[in-house]
Amino acid sequence: MSRRALFQRSPTTASPTGPRPGPPEPSFWTATPESLSAALACGLDGLSSAEAARRLGAYGANVDAAARTEGALRAVLRRFMEPLSLILLAAALVSIVTGDWIGGVIIAAILTLSVGLDTVQEGHALRAAEALRRSVALKAEVRRDGGFVTVPVDAVVPGDIIRVRAGDIVPADALIIEASAFTAAEAALTGEPYPVEKRPGSVTAASPAEASNALFRGAVAQTGEAVALVAATGATTVFGAAAASLAEAADSSPFQNDLRAFGLVVARLTMALVIAVLALRVTFGRPVLDSLLFAVALAVGLTPELLPMITTVTLARGALRMAKRKVIVKRLAAIHDLGAMTILCTDKTGTLTSAEIALARSLDAAGGEDSRPARLAAIAADLGGDRGSLDAALVRAEPGAAAGWRLASRRAFDYAKRTGSILAEGPEGAILIVKGAPEAVLAACASRRADGQVRPFSPAEREQALGRVQALAEAGLRSIAIASRVWTGPVGAVEPGDEADLVFEGFCAFADPPKATAAAAIARLAQAGVHVKILSGDDPVVVRRLAGLVGLKAEVTLSGPEVAALTDEALAVRVREVEAFGRLTPDQKVRVVRALKANGAVVGFLGDGINDAPGLRQADIGLSVEGATGVAQAAADMILLAPDLAVVADGVTEGRRTFANILKYVRMGASSNFGNMLSMPRPRWRCRSCRCCPPRSCSTT
């Protein structure tokens, strides 16, 4: 895909009237709203309904590229074209031709029933997955005909002016025109669990992850409100390529490859048997036609005619057992593939972690554990917070902190100063509480609290405090600083100048904690011979810390730039010893999966974000969870309704149990069929009537 096409699709049809919108610059976030609107042939006051309808026809609906679907007839024909199915069809035909109508009809009926059951079972699973995907109907707020109206997300077009508020899902890639205390969670896109500040302005960033003035489709608004100009929709968004990968034909699964290989072995053995028996009998003077029929009859006896039926029924029963464990199996063969899995690649946010920010530590000015900073921060969050993820974590950690306190005044978080404050009245009198970025808060502090006493804050101590922030970051924790000041004078509105001569109280450090069951599930998978590797878009330091918490040895991590610098051959060597990968792009996740497969591993991939879709598609077995993005669910082979790694461990056991049952039939059927073949009586020639063979070979003379 060209750089130009990445951000704007060419119109599928010529616009009937009016100027055709031109494509924006490739990195649209480097443009100004005025230049971008000129490139899109629109204004900054929104579109008319007629113009929006015209653009919808020209650019198409704002939807993901649809996965390649298969009609019922094609699905049936594909199953009949498998080598084993072709052998059974040939066996049924030969049986009918040779006069064994009952045997031929039975073989054909068994094969037809097997194919039908397989097709129907997968159809039910696909419909269940589609119903799950459509369970939430998304809307978007756009400016049409001079006012904001609500429209379906798929009706948003390039040139629209959208308004996004806290809790909304960003419907398209857009350049911010106005923003008020706006933050967005881009975990589904980048793997970063913390909200990102977004505001208008010019940036020169080459990466979307660094574009602070742009909104990207699939992100979730956390706080505030933003108005933005839509630059790209559907498959032309920055992460649209992830959805577009679903339109490509998927590789055959390991189970399909194994079954096809077994069918080819049976076919070769059957052909060799027919040729050998035919040649041997003709050499001894037997009639060619009778010898051919006898050889074919032997071949039919060797064919495992019940294998397709046994396979389908066994997998279907396995799917039912998985459904009871809240797992939707979209592809029956995926049950076997899950059992054959040797490496599980998993995303971090939402799969190994709870995807819910939690307060990890509350530290005083000297770096010791102290609940006072968390208590003050919780008062500020409860009385005057913006209800973002960090404020919610503070309130959960100190649920009763605000009891007895009253909000007197509030100054909303200033993204330029990177601080926010409240004036609260309570048991300690009137107190100004300030929280925000450590650098900004520390710069406003003239003293610090130590051992309950307020003491001067020296430059050396200030540097030590900043060093603790860096140490916490290296441990995978995100920090905010807390400061306070006793309010003197009449209680009134808080002004920016009031945030001075503060007392530094300490830090609150946050983390995205691992799920309680993650470590035990990883241990179960390890006992089953499945190695877990973390593939994340988050910082490698954070990924390494998480790996240690869930029981993985991640002494060596590999970052996205390091992966990009390696050739495919070198990467195939490095992935053998690396357990954790950070700052990976979707394409780099695909490269890691391919490298693992090149080493002979059966690779599973567990993810829930848009950036996980290519990896889900490339893996031998793709696993997603309920609540994942529609793109991830469409790319997956199984959907876990209970997002727990323990379910994956149960699935591995179920897959191996299912395969063992199929293998039992193969062994039993092969031995019995060979026995039947060897015990088949030779034909009894009736020479007195047909005169077709030498007298010495006739059993009736």
TrEMBL record:
Keywords: ATP-binding, Membrane, Nucleotide-binding, Translocase, Transmembrane, Transmembrane helix. GO terms for cellular component: membrane. It is a multi-pass membrane protein. Pfam families: Cation_ATPase, Cation_ATPase_N, E1-E2_ATPase. Residues 27-100 form the Cation-transporting P-type ATPase N-terminal domain. The chain crosses the membrane at residues 84-111, 226-247, 259-280, 292-316. This is Mg2+-importing ATPase. The lineage of its organism: Bacteria, Pseudomonadati, Pseudomonadota, Alphaproteobacteria, Hyphomicrobiales.
